[in-house]
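Co-fold these.
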Amino acid sequence: MRVLVVSEDPDFFRSSSWVAQQLGGEILGIHPSESRYVDKVFVPKLEGAWELPLAEFASTLKPDVVIAGGTKRDRTFAFSLAGKLRSSVASDVIDAKLEGSSLMVRRPVYSGVGIATLRLKLPAVITVQKNTMEPNLLKGEVERVDLPRSVITLKERKTAQQSVSLDKAKIIVSVGRGMGSKDNVKYAEELARLLNGAVGGSRPVTAEMGWLPEDRQIGLSGNKVRPQLYIALGISGQPQHIAGIRDSKVIVAVNKDKNAPISENCDYLVVGDAIEFCKVMIGRLSK
Amino acid sequence: MSVVACFKVVPDDTSVRVIGGKVETNVPVKISTYDKNAIEEAVRVKEKLGWKAIGVTVGNTDRKSIRDALSMGLDEVVAISAGYLDVAGTAMALAETIRGISPKLVIMAETTTDSSTSALPPYLAQILGYSLVSYVRSLSIQDSSITAERSVGDVEVVEAPLPAVVSVTGEINTPRTPSVKQIMESAKKPVKQINFSSQPLAELVEVQPFVTTRKKVIIEKPMNEAVDQLINYLKGEGVL
Ligand SMILES: Cc1cc2nc3c(=O)[nH]c(=O)nc-3n(C[C@H](O)[C@H](O)[C@H](O)COP(=O)(O)OP(=O)(O)OC[C@H]3O[C@@H](n4cnc5c(N)ncnc54)[C@H](O)[C@@H]3O)c2cc1C
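Predicted complex below.
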């Protein structure tokens, strides 16, 4: 059994390595820096449009199982590799175990309403969700690699700056379209500052309208978060948003619509205007 | 010259819910949300460059959904009926049909609302031997290449040779609402039916509801009192 762990992101690399160690076998890694979570790590320079060249390199390692992280570039790499290997695939996997010559995995489906169990034939390529587990330290032998050239040219990259990590925030104040305008986001920011928390948002306010940077997006296709307290301001609570906040301890929603879908998925629903809520709450907390 | 838009007919994600301890998927179907953006983008290519825009769908070949796709401006649809297919099977089914069309560009969505694996565009690109640009939020086409802006956390501008597979995000455009005339005309457009089956590499064993129990306390009173009450609850929970 040869398991290959790959991610561009340190947290995802750690999470994937932990899943790999549960499976056992020889564990190889590909990561932009050295790591002892694996027996041997290949260290490429991840420059330009690197996903397809990396898939080409990874296919030469002939893995039985590939466990990749969940960034969008990780996925593009992983499923290009899957296509090369004609392998089985699964994404956003929450747990994986070997059963005979198959890999059994569980993952959310129907935008997070269900959890599916799949039996994957080997070779299998999966991407995993982040976990909080610490893998054992292995040999971590290092080999630097040069990637083949890509047919795709990267002309420009505007790097997102993760100001506060949503992954680790204890309190998150999250804004949705119901906040009304980009200008109003300042109320949520002030509230978050007083609570010592971070600000996130739904897909429309991040990816579409740009009220917040895109890396603040929470949900199925954004960050999955696990704060002690999650405050959803003017967020309707569609399944794709809920999929990113399930591991929160307490969810508070503020919505002027008492019957918004989020009412089914929160601990406390304050029925009313999100801005008014922020103002009153800021008043109480600054006393 | 032609452009292919791939789309999938799925149970409406806003209706899929847990009923009686089971995920109820026997609900009305629709074109998966962002697949409409893929269709829209293909129709825009057709309008701008005069290419033929062909839709390909695999799985559930619901007539009404196919009519919706044609009404948006596709010239024809190839409907591939199949039972349960995994990503590998879907890619094989699409590749067979797409090779026959030999398009310059294949447009798909970043992900569907049912299985949301995001694997099909890269998988298909490999099988076809086309170049791939994923998570595209704006696209322009030159003679033998495309320039695309991708949303991958960072924003990247890349150039890729044709033929190419691109996966688009929901933000790339706003899918049009067809006029009554377009809906009428869509009835005359060709729909080619094909059957396909393959042994899945990923076998679906079961789907269980994913439920997280929440307290669902509703606080509906003047804001000053509501906030006081909420603060008390949150102190009680030990999170404030
Ligand atoms: C494949 C796919 C992936 C997706 N991934 C994600 C994801 O990762 N994250 C995500 O968030 N979404 C995602 N979505 C989109 C998701 O389906 C919803 O469209 C989105 O979450 C809605 O955002 P919203 O709640 O901000 O806006 P809306 O749905 O428009 O809700 C606004 C809410 O604000 C309330 N409101 C209005 N005014 C006020 C006021 N003054 N005070 C208080 N409340 C008010 C309204 O009652 C409403 O409930 C995805 C969709 C698809 C198809």
